[in-house]
Amino acid sequence: MINQELQLKLQAYLDGELMPSEEAQVKDLIESDAEASALCIELQSVKAALTGADLEIKLPETREFFWSKIQREIERQSAAQAAPAHKPSWVEWVRGHLMPVSGVALVLGVMGIMALHSSSSAAQFGEMELASDNMGAYTFRDQQEGMTMVWFYNRDDSQFTADSSLASVDHQ
Amino acid sequence: MKTNADHSSASDEQLVKAAKDGDMAAFEELVARHRDKIYARAFSMMRNEDEALDLSQEAWVKSWQRLKQFQGDSSFGTWMTRIVINLCLDQLRKRKRQRTESIEEMSEETGGVERQMPVVITNPTEGLERIELRKRIDKAMEQLSHEHRTVLMLHEFEEMEYKEIAKTMNCSIGTVMSRLFYARRKMAALLVNLKTEDVK
Fold first, then answer.
1. Whole-number Å distance between alpha carbons of A37 and A114
2. Is B57 touching A (CB cutoff 8 A)?
3. CA–CA separation, B62 vs A70, rounded Å?
4. Are A60 and B49 within 8 A, CB to CB?
5. How far from B108 is each of A6, A125, B113, B141, B173, CA to CA, in Å?
6. Which residues on neighbouring strands pair with residue A153, listed in sequence order?
7. What is the pTM of this model?
8. Which one of A161, B72, B85, B116 is most buried, by most CB atoms within 10 A?
9. Reduced to 3 states, what is the DSSP secondary structure of residue B149?
10. pLDDT for B38-70, tens place per residue?
11. Do A17 and B161 touch (CB under 8 A)?
Protein backbone atom coordinates (compact mmCIF):
# COMPACT_ATOMS: atom_id res chain seq x y z
CA MET A 1 0.00 0.00 0.00
CA ILE A 2 1.45 3.39 -0.93
CA ASN A 3 1.98 5.65 2.02
CA GLN A 4 0.11 8.85 2.80
CA GLU A 5 2.85 11.10 1.52
CA LEU A 6 2.80 9.41 -1.89
CA GLN A 7 -0.99 9.51 -1.97
CA LEU A 8 -0.94 13.27 -1.46
CA LYS A 9 1.83 13.69 -4.02
CA LEU A 10 -0.25 11.76 -6.51
CA GLN A 11 -3.16 14.10 -5.90
CA ALA A 12 -0.97 17.19 -6.17
CA TYR A 13 0.31 15.85 -9.50
CA LEU A 14 -3.26 15.53 -10.80
CA ASP A 15 -4.09 19.05 -9.60
CA GLY A 16 -0.97 20.50 -11.19
CA GLU A 17 0.40 21.52 -7.82
CA LEU A 18 3.43 19.26 -7.63
CA MET A 19 6.96 20.64 -7.75
CA PRO A 20 8.46 19.93 -11.21
CA SER A 21 11.33 18.09 -9.58
CA GLU A 22 8.92 15.50 -8.16
CA GLU A 23 6.78 14.97 -11.23
CA ALA A 24 8.99 12.26 -12.72
CA GLN A 25 8.89 10.24 -9.49
CA VAL A 26 5.06 10.31 -9.41
CA LYS A 27 4.78 9.46 -13.11
CA ASP A 28 6.96 6.39 -12.54
CA LEU A 29 4.86 5.40 -9.57
CA ILE A 30 1.62 5.57 -11.56
CA GLU A 31 3.12 3.48 -14.33
CA SER A 32 4.73 0.87 -12.13
CA ASP A 33 2.33 0.48 -9.22
CA ALA A 34 -1.16 -0.92 -9.89
CA GLU A 35 -2.57 0.55 -6.69
CA ALA A 36 -1.23 4.00 -7.45
CA SER A 37 -2.63 3.75 -10.95
CA ALA A 38 -6.10 2.74 -9.67
CA LEU A 39 -6.07 5.53 -7.11
CA CYS A 40 -5.12 7.97 -9.83
CA ILE A 41 -8.13 6.88 -11.93
CA GLU A 42 -10.46 7.18 -8.95
CA LEU A 43 -9.31 10.69 -8.08
CA GLN A 44 -9.53 11.75 -11.71
CA SER A 45 -13.07 10.41 -12.06
CA VAL A 46 -14.24 12.36 -9.00
CA LYS A 47 -12.52 15.46 -10.30
CA ALA A 48 -14.17 15.05 -13.69
CA ALA A 49 -17.58 14.39 -12.16
CA LEU A 50 -17.41 17.58 -10.11
CA THR A 51 -16.40 19.76 -13.04
CA GLY A 52 -19.37 21.97 -13.83
CA ALA A 53 -21.56 20.18 -11.30
CA ASP A 54 -21.98 23.15 -9.00
CA LEU A 55 -25.43 23.69 -7.54
CA GLU A 56 -27.75 25.68 -9.75
CA ILE A 57 -30.37 27.07 -7.43
CA LYS A 58 -32.24 30.31 -7.42
CA LEU A 59 -32.76 32.68 -4.55
CA PRO A 60 -36.27 32.00 -3.26
CA GLU A 61 -37.22 35.70 -3.03
CA THR A 62 -38.21 38.26 -5.62
CA ARG A 63 -35.69 40.81 -6.81
CA GLU A 64 -37.65 43.66 -5.22
CA PHE A 65 -38.15 41.99 -1.85
CA PHE A 66 -34.54 40.85 -1.53
CA TRP A 67 -33.23 44.27 -2.54
CA SER A 68 -35.58 46.07 -0.14
CA LYS A 69 -34.07 44.12 2.78
CA ILE A 70 -30.54 44.93 1.70
CA GLN A 71 -31.36 48.59 1.14
CA ARG A 72 -33.03 48.88 4.55
CA GLU A 73 -30.02 47.33 6.26
CA ILE A 74 -27.57 49.58 4.40
CA GLU A 75 -29.60 52.64 5.35
CA ARG A 76 -29.93 51.50 8.95
CA GLN A 77 -26.18 51.00 9.27
CA SER A 78 -25.41 54.32 7.56
CA ALA A 79 -27.79 56.12 9.91
CA ALA A 80 -26.16 54.47 12.92
CA GLN A 81 -22.73 55.61 11.74
CA ALA A 82 -23.90 59.14 11.00
CA ALA A 83 -25.74 59.55 14.31
CA PRO A 84 -24.57 62.57 16.40
CA ALA A 85 -21.51 61.66 18.33
CA HIS A 86 -22.76 62.19 21.77
CA LYS A 87 -25.62 61.44 23.64
CA PRO A 88 -23.67 59.33 26.16
CA SER A 89 -24.60 55.69 26.45
CA TRP A 90 -25.70 54.28 29.79
CA VAL A 91 -22.30 52.64 30.19
CA GLU A 92 -20.61 56.02 29.87
CA TRP A 93 -23.11 57.56 32.28
CA VAL A 94 -22.40 54.86 34.88
CA ARG A 95 -18.68 55.32 34.40
CA GLY A 96 -18.94 59.11 34.78
CA HIS A 97 -21.30 59.29 37.70
CA LEU A 98 -21.95 56.14 39.60
CA MET A 99 -18.47 54.67 39.59
CA PRO A 100 -16.83 57.57 41.48
CA VAL A 101 -19.72 57.54 43.92
CA SER A 102 -19.49 53.81 44.42
CA GLY A 103 -15.74 54.18 45.00
CA VAL A 104 -16.43 56.70 47.73
CA ALA A 105 -19.18 54.53 49.15
CA LEU A 106 -16.73 51.64 49.33
CA VAL A 107 -14.20 53.75 51.23
CA LEU A 108 -16.91 54.90 53.61
CA GLY A 109 -18.22 51.38 54.02
CA VAL A 110 -14.79 50.23 55.10
CA MET A 111 -14.51 53.18 57.44
CA GLY A 112 -17.95 52.40 58.86
CA ILE A 113 -17.01 48.80 59.53
CA MET A 114 -13.82 49.96 61.19
CA ALA A 115 -15.85 52.37 63.31
CA LEU A 116 -18.26 49.66 64.40
CA HIS A 117 -15.40 47.48 65.51
CA SER A 118 -13.65 50.25 67.29
CA SER A 119 -14.40 51.88 70.61
CA SER A 120 -12.62 55.02 69.67
CA SER A 121 -14.46 58.26 69.03
CA ALA A 122 -15.93 59.45 65.72
CA ALA A 123 -13.22 62.02 65.40
CA GLN A 124 -10.86 59.25 64.33
CA PHE A 125 -12.42 59.00 60.87
CA GLY A 126 -12.32 62.65 60.19
CA GLU A 127 -10.13 61.99 57.16
CA MET A 128 -11.79 60.87 53.99
CA GLU A 129 -10.45 60.00 50.55
CA LEU A 130 -12.45 60.52 47.41
CA ALA A 131 -11.95 58.18 44.47
CA SER A 132 -12.25 60.98 41.93
CA ASP A 133 -10.95 64.54 41.80
CA ASN A 134 -14.26 65.54 40.28
CA MET A 135 -16.15 64.57 43.42
CA GLY A 136 -16.77 66.82 46.38
CA ALA A 137 -18.30 65.98 49.76
CA TYR A 138 -19.91 67.71 52.72
CA THR A 139 -20.36 66.01 56.05
CA PHE A 140 -22.67 66.57 58.98
CA ARG A 141 -22.18 64.93 62.37
CA ASP A 142 -25.11 64.53 64.77
CA GLN A 143 -23.44 63.93 68.13
CA GLN A 144 -26.72 63.15 69.84
CA GLU A 145 -27.68 60.39 67.44
CA GLY A 146 -24.09 59.29 66.96
CA MET A 147 -24.54 59.57 63.22
CA THR A 148 -22.51 61.15 60.41
CA MET A 149 -24.14 62.15 57.12
CA VAL A 150 -22.14 62.74 53.97
CA TRP A 151 -23.32 64.54 50.77
CA PHE A 152 -21.46 63.85 47.56
CA TYR A 153 -21.60 65.97 44.47
CA ASN A 154 -19.95 66.27 41.07
CA ARG A 155 -17.82 69.45 41.05
CA ASP A 156 -18.46 69.93 37.33
CA ASP A 157 -22.21 70.10 37.37
CA SER A 158 -23.25 70.59 40.97
CA GLN A 159 -25.01 73.69 42.22
CA PHE A 160 -22.58 73.56 45.15
CA THR A 161 -19.77 74.74 42.92
CA ALA A 162 -21.44 78.10 42.34
CA ASP A 163 -20.09 80.72 44.71
CA SER A 164 -23.54 81.78 45.84
CA SER A 165 -24.43 78.23 46.65
CA LEU A 166 -21.25 77.71 48.56
CA ALA A 167 -21.96 80.77 50.63
CA SER A 168 -25.31 79.39 51.65
CA VAL A 169 -23.85 76.18 53.00
CA ASP A 170 -23.28 76.24 56.69
CA HIS A 171 -20.12 74.19 57.25
CA GLN A 172 -20.08 72.17 60.43
CA MET B 1 -30.05 60.79 -13.97
CA LYS B 2 -29.55 57.19 -15.04
CA THR B 3 -32.57 54.94 -15.42
CA ASN B 4 -32.84 51.25 -14.59
CA ALA B 5 -32.76 50.54 -18.32
CA ASP B 6 -29.35 52.26 -18.58
CA HIS B 7 -28.08 50.16 -15.71
CA SER B 8 -29.32 46.89 -17.18
CA SER B 9 -27.24 47.44 -20.29
CA ALA B 10 -24.12 48.53 -18.39
CA SER B 11 -21.19 46.22 -17.69
CA ASP B 12 -20.32 45.08 -14.16
CA GLU B 13 -17.29 47.37 -14.22
CA GLN B 14 -19.44 50.40 -15.09
CA LEU B 15 -21.95 49.49 -12.40
CA VAL B 16 -19.20 49.09 -9.79
CA LYS B 17 -17.79 52.49 -10.72
CA ALA B 18 -21.22 54.11 -10.39
CA ALA B 19 -21.93 52.29 -7.13
CA LYS B 20 -18.59 53.50 -5.73
CA ASP B 21 -19.87 57.02 -6.40
CA GLY B 22 -22.92 56.25 -4.30
CA ASP B 23 -25.36 55.18 -7.02
CA MET B 24 -27.56 52.65 -5.25
CA ALA B 25 -29.53 51.81 -8.38
CA ALA B 26 -26.30 50.62 -9.97
CA PHE B 27 -25.60 48.49 -6.92
CA GLU B 28 -29.12 47.07 -7.08
CA GLU B 29 -28.44 45.96 -10.65
CA LEU B 30 -25.28 44.18 -9.45
CA VAL B 31 -27.29 42.45 -6.73
CA ALA B 32 -29.89 41.36 -9.29
CA ARG B 33 -27.20 39.94 -11.57
CA HIS B 34 -25.26 37.97 -9.01
CA ARG B 35 -27.76 37.19 -6.26
CA ASP B 36 -28.53 33.62 -7.40
CA LYS B 37 -24.85 32.64 -7.54
CA ILE B 38 -24.14 34.18 -4.14
CA TYR B 39 -27.16 32.49 -2.60
CA ALA B 40 -26.26 29.16 -4.19
CA ARG B 41 -22.74 29.37 -2.76
CA ALA B 42 -24.07 30.18 0.71
CA PHE B 43 -26.56 27.34 0.45
CA SER B 44 -23.95 24.85 -0.74
CA MET B 45 -21.88 25.65 2.33
CA MET B 46 -24.58 25.99 4.97
CA ARG B 47 -27.14 23.49 3.63
CA ASN B 48 -29.89 25.57 5.17
CA GLU B 49 -32.18 27.91 3.26
CA ASP B 50 -32.72 30.49 6.03
CA GLU B 51 -29.05 30.72 6.93
CA ALA B 52 -28.10 30.97 3.27
CA LEU B 53 -30.59 33.81 2.80
CA ASP B 54 -29.35 35.71 5.85
CA LEU B 55 -25.70 35.25 4.94
CA SER B 56 -26.14 36.22 1.33
CA GLN B 57 -28.00 39.36 2.40
CA GLU B 58 -25.22 40.15 4.87
CA ALA B 59 -22.66 39.63 2.12
CA TRP B 60 -24.38 42.24 -0.05
CA VAL B 61 -24.51 44.77 2.77
CA LYS B 62 -20.82 44.17 3.48
CA SER B 63 -19.90 44.52 -0.16
CA TRP B 64 -21.63 47.91 -0.35
CA GLN B 65 -19.61 49.05 2.66
CA ARG B 66 -16.34 47.70 1.24
CA LEU B 67 -16.91 48.63 -2.36
CA LYS B 68 -14.13 51.22 -2.27
CA GLN B 69 -11.68 48.40 -1.47
CA PHE B 70 -12.60 46.52 -4.64
CA GLN B 71 -9.79 47.25 -7.08
CA GLY B 72 -10.98 45.03 -9.93
CA ASP B 73 -8.13 42.51 -9.67
CA SER B 74 -10.76 39.78 -10.04
CA SER B 75 -14.28 39.98 -11.44
CA PHE B 76 -16.96 41.51 -9.25
CA GLY B 77 -18.70 38.10 -9.05
CA THR B 78 -15.52 36.43 -7.78
CA TRP B 79 -14.98 39.19 -5.22
CA MET B 80 -18.55 38.84 -3.98
CA THR B 81 -18.24 35.06 -3.81
CA ARG B 82 -15.15 35.42 -1.59
CA ILE B 83 -17.12 37.67 0.76
CA VAL B 84 -19.98 35.21 1.13
CA ILE B 85 -17.58 32.26 1.53
CA ASN B 86 -15.77 34.06 4.35
CA LEU B 87 -19.04 34.87 6.08
CA CYS B 88 -20.15 31.24 5.81
CA LEU B 89 -16.81 30.00 7.15
CA ASP B 90 -17.07 32.39 10.12
CA GLN B 91 -20.55 31.09 10.81
CA LEU B 92 -19.46 27.47 10.56
CA ARG B 93 -16.49 28.11 12.89
CA LYS B 94 -18.81 29.72 15.43
CA ARG B 95 -21.14 26.77 15.21
CA LYS B 96 -18.28 24.33 15.61
CA ARG B 97 -16.97 26.12 18.69
CA GLN B 98 -20.40 25.83 20.23
CA ARG B 99 -20.75 22.08 19.89
CA THR B 100 -18.71 19.29 21.34
CA GLU B 101 -16.97 17.38 18.63
CA SER B 102 -17.88 13.76 18.45
CA ILE B 103 -15.26 11.06 17.96
CA GLU B 104 -16.73 10.44 14.52
CA GLU B 105 -16.16 14.06 13.51
CA MET B 106 -12.60 14.01 14.77
CA SER B 107 -11.93 10.86 12.80
CA GLU B 108 -13.42 12.47 9.72
CA GLU B 109 -11.21 15.50 10.16
CA THR B 110 -8.06 13.44 10.24
CA GLY B 111 -9.39 11.05 7.63
CA GLY B 112 -9.03 7.82 9.56
CA VAL B 113 -11.36 5.60 7.53
CA GLU B 114 -10.99 6.91 4.00
CA ARG B 115 -7.32 6.16 3.81
CA GLN B 116 -7.96 2.44 4.09
CA MET B 117 -10.94 2.37 1.75
CA PRO B 118 -10.54 0.16 -1.31
CA VAL B 119 -10.09 2.09 -4.49
CA VAL B 120 -13.27 2.56 -6.51
CA ILE B 121 -12.62 0.71 -9.74
CA THR B 122 -15.67 1.56 -11.84
CA ASN B 123 -16.50 5.13 -12.64
CA PRO B 124 -19.57 5.78 -10.50
CA THR B 125 -20.82 8.60 -12.67
CA GLU B 126 -20.40 6.95 -16.05
CA GLY B 127 -23.41 7.18 -18.33
CA LEU B 128 -25.34 9.54 -16.11
CA GLU B 129 -27.25 12.49 -17.50
CA ARG B 130 -25.91 15.88 -16.34
CA ILE B 131 -28.98 16.64 -14.23
CA GLU B 132 -28.86 13.24 -12.57
CA LEU B 133 -25.14 13.64 -11.93
CA ARG B 134 -25.69 17.02 -10.29
CA LYS B 135 -28.35 15.52 -8.03
CA ARG B 136 -26.08 12.71 -6.94
CA ILE B 137 -23.16 14.95 -6.32
CA ASP B 138 -25.34 17.28 -4.30
CA LYS B 139 -26.62 14.34 -2.25
CA ALA B 140 -23.08 13.12 -1.65
CA MET B 141 -21.85 16.63 -0.79
CA GLU B 142 -24.53 16.86 1.87
CA GLN B 143 -23.02 13.85 3.60
CA LEU B 144 -19.54 15.35 3.86
CA SER B 145 -18.37 17.34 6.86
CA HIS B 146 -18.33 21.07 6.25
CA GLU B 147 -14.51 21.08 6.11
CA HIS B 148 -14.44 18.45 3.38
CA ARG B 149 -17.32 19.97 1.48
CA THR B 150 -15.75 23.43 1.62
CA VAL B 151 -12.33 22.31 0.47
CA LEU B 152 -13.83 20.40 -2.47
CA MET B 153 -16.04 23.30 -3.39
CA LEU B 154 -13.24 25.85 -3.25
CA HIS B 155 -10.96 23.67 -5.35
CA GLU B 156 -13.38 22.30 -7.92
CA PHE B 157 -16.01 25.02 -8.20
CA GLU B 158 -14.09 28.15 -7.28
CA GLU B 159 -10.90 26.82 -8.87
CA MET B 160 -8.71 28.00 -6.02
CA GLU B 161 -5.15 26.78 -5.63
CA TYR B 162 -4.04 24.95 -2.48
CA LYS B 163 -2.34 28.10 -1.16
CA GLU B 164 -5.45 30.21 -1.64
CA ILE B 165 -7.67 27.61 0.03
CA ALA B 166 -5.30 27.43 3.01
CA LYS B 167 -5.53 31.20 3.40
CA THR B 168 -9.32 31.21 3.09
CA MET B 169 -9.81 28.32 5.51
CA ASN B 170 -7.11 29.53 7.86
CA CYS B 171 -5.17 26.27 7.86
CA SER B 172 -1.92 24.86 6.45
CA ILE B 173 -1.43 23.70 2.86
CA GLY B 174 -0.81 20.20 4.25
CA THR B 175 -4.24 20.23 5.88
CA VAL B 176 -5.81 21.37 2.62
CA MET B 177 -4.15 18.50 0.73
CA SER B 178 -5.18 16.01 3.33
CA ARG B 179 -8.78 17.23 3.49
CA LEU B 180 -9.07 17.33 -0.28
CA PHE B 181 -7.76 13.79 -0.60
CA TYR B 182 -10.15 12.34 1.94
CA ALA B 183 -13.03 14.40 0.59
CA ARG B 184 -12.47 12.98 -2.89
CA ARG B 185 -12.15 9.45 -1.63
CA LYS B 186 -15.28 9.74 0.42
CA MET B 187 -17.08 11.32 -2.51
CA ALA B 188 -16.08 8.39 -4.72
CA ALA B 189 -17.39 5.93 -2.16
CA LEU B 190 -20.63 7.86 -1.69
CA LEU B 191 -21.26 8.05 -5.41
CA VAL B 192 -20.77 4.28 -5.72
CA ASN B 193 -23.18 3.72 -2.85
CA LEU B 194 -25.77 5.99 -4.42
CA LYS B 195 -25.45 4.05 -7.68
CA THR B 196 -25.82 0.75 -5.83
CA GLU B 197 -28.92 2.05 -4.02
CA ASP B 198 -30.46 2.93 -7.37
CA VAL B 199 -29.94 -0.60 -8.67
CA LYS B 200 -31.63 -2.19 -5.64
1. 86
2. yes
3. 10
4. yes
5. 20, 69, 7, 14, 18
6. A136
7. 0.69
8. B85
9. helix
10. 999 999 999 999 999 999 999 999 999 999 999
11. yes
